[in-house]
Amino acid sequence: MSQTLAVTDVITTLNQAESRFNLRRSPDPDFFGEWLTDLPTLTIQEEATLDRLKATYDYQRADGVLAEGVINLLLISPLLYLAGLCDPPFKIRAEVSVKIELIDGDTMLQGRIDTLVLQQQLWVVVVESKRTTFPCLDAVPQALAYMMAAPYSDRPCFGLVTNGDQFIFLKVVQAPMPQYDWSDDFSLLSRRRNELRGVLQILKRLKAAIV
Length: 211
Hints:
The chain is an alpha/beta fold and 211 residues long. It has one domain: tt1808, chain A (Alpha-Beta Complex). Helices cover 32% and strands 27% of the residues. It is built from six helices and nine strands; from the N terminus they run E-H-H-E-H-H-E-E-E-H-E-E-E-E-H. It has helices at 7-10, 14-21, 44-61, 68-82, 140-147, 196-210; strands at 3-6, 24-25, 91-101, 107-119, 122-129, 157-162, 166-173, 179-182, 186-187. Strands 1, 2, 3, 4, 5, 6, 7, 8 and 9 form a nine-stranded mixed β-sheet that branches. The longest helix has 18 residues, at 44-61. The termini are far apart.
């Protein structure tokens, strides 16, 4: 008899995500080259906007833990807008219900994606924002599970997990074999550079890769 379980209850570690979906992290250093190569140059205005976003985030963060909704308001929404992912042909969906069938064929996982960007039904960016006390890497297994539900298994799916303080990009390819990898960690705790600039560059690069 088939059963439906919550993603958050079943997929909590990388080992669980890998075994449930027959996933493996790619050993190829060029597998996820999109976050490293051909990154666009930001305008002076874009950089100034990102500096203001970070200053606002730092100000709000100084009062303590920030919830998902606040992170989405302060960072995710402005970043998607600046990246052009709110404009045609893209569509934004929030709190999207997703069902994923596991490889055993008898178990269905169900969960909700915080923010989903759609382009002709191609899943472009999955954003899993977590409150600031939640380690960013701990959100990766859940995001991988959602990305495995992408409707076109012959195309790559890109994701982004963040707890506000940190950002990590993901790439999943289902064919000919399920593989994934993630980017370096972009931390807003850095005092030397506003890492939001790198985040926006990568979002723009991923947009260009699928348009």
